[in-house]
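pipeline/complex-builder :: batch 7 item 3
reading input block
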Amino acid sequence: MSFEVILGAWVATGLTLFILTFLYQDNPLFKLAEHLYVGVSVGYAIVKTYDTVVIRLIYEPMVMQGDWWLLIPLAIGALMLTRYVPKAAWMSRIAFAFVVGVGSGLAIPRVISSYILKQIEDTVRPLASLATDGSTTFTYSLLNPASNLNAIVLLIGVVSVLFYFFFSVEHTGPGKAVARTGIIFLMIAFGAAFGYTVMARMSLLIGRLTDLIEYAQPQYGRATWWLLAATIATLIVFHARRKGTEPPQ
Amino acid sequence: MNFAERMLHIDRRIIFLMIGLCTLIPLLYPVGLAIKVSPEVKSVYDYIEALPEGSVFLLSLDFDPASKPELYPQAVALLHHAFKKNLRVIGMTLWLPGTGMASEVVSRVAREEGKVSGKDYVFLGWSPGASSVIINMGQDLYKAFPTDYNNQPTTELPVLKGVQSLRDVAYVISLAAGSTGIETWYVFGKDKYKFELGGGCTGVIAPGLYPLLRSGQINGLIGGLRGAAEYEVLIGRKGNAVAGMDAQSATHFAIILLVILCNVFYLLTRTSKNRAEQSLR
């Protein structure tokens, strides 16, 4: 196994253990790992952005292929930097206006189509359909076992939740029953989301422990065991030093 | 302080230790609990299985190392399946921090399957803009990515022969850890350029994507480590995801038990408080 792989395993093991020490209590090892994470992430992002954007997408096409029209978007982008010069800061608004304008123009129609119209269509489609002459036909039938009962449940859920968030009408009488139904649907949705979140967090723990088990093998120099011992020893030292500096109760 | 109150004020580090042990022990001594494949994962598998040899399959690895435990096994399983089916694989990412990891997983699985970069697969890397990258790829893939991750001109790659834009891609799967992922690919890609889209995601965002699945906006969904394990079962190649399922079940059981116990202790405490108040009156 190459030296780089073994070194990577030791670094990964050490940082994982340092982060996990937070479960015991906040300590300098955790802070070290936390700061390293932030620093490395930002450093990586800067280098990759520079390489991809400045070199590959701007410099090389302009200088090597003669795509000098790229100077226009480059100039618009550069206007954002004028925010650092108070007298010229107003020029950055041109760049922001361009970004907001293009972004909104691209996003608004697509998002409305995908999230609102398509979802409304899917909510009512199993119940009603449009005929070729433009008239509406109700296709759902309780007598037909092929009809989808889930469609009714979904429709009740959508309508009741929407009504719950409709604050212009006081939720009394029948309205209260509808709003309460909406709350039940919301609670079920939150429960499902929380269940999935727990599953996701446990998966992350499984991932880290799987790596720790792998790195405890002899081919990695038993990195997990050595670093676990070192981490525990360091925590004991920190704990003892902290105890010594704490004012008496 | 009675027993129930003492339990409600238990040191949380004991709970951490308990969850840690529930995860660690099944990883060290696996039981091999059965894994049932869900229809949404089977849909993705069936679609890839039905693709003819040489079809273009685009895998967008839209996650960073923080989501590696859930999405990396999904990527490994999907890539093995695609390479086994002799599909032409295009790898890319919309997440800058995940570029190196995405490149590593694509090239590693390709090497294991005996595939050659440029001929059987290509990793395009990352390009800024997310939604605009997809729109750009929908118009002209070579303008969005003039070079691949290894700085080879994409116009000269045999793997991309006959591919001009996203319209020429048979199947796109986005493995997403956040909003820049499946939803972005649907809104700015599938809806306009009419390719089939599937998804893989972390457990956290899975509930939010089920409406897209039901409406047919995506044809399948692989959710979290569990979804990855199901896919590993389908392709008959058990990996890290299947190995983690015993631990997942054990931790879920422990958490359910803790939730029930916590509620029981809370009710006991409330009952004893009510009794104490009544006796004072």
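note: Chain B has two domains: 3-30+245-280, 39-238.
queue -> next item
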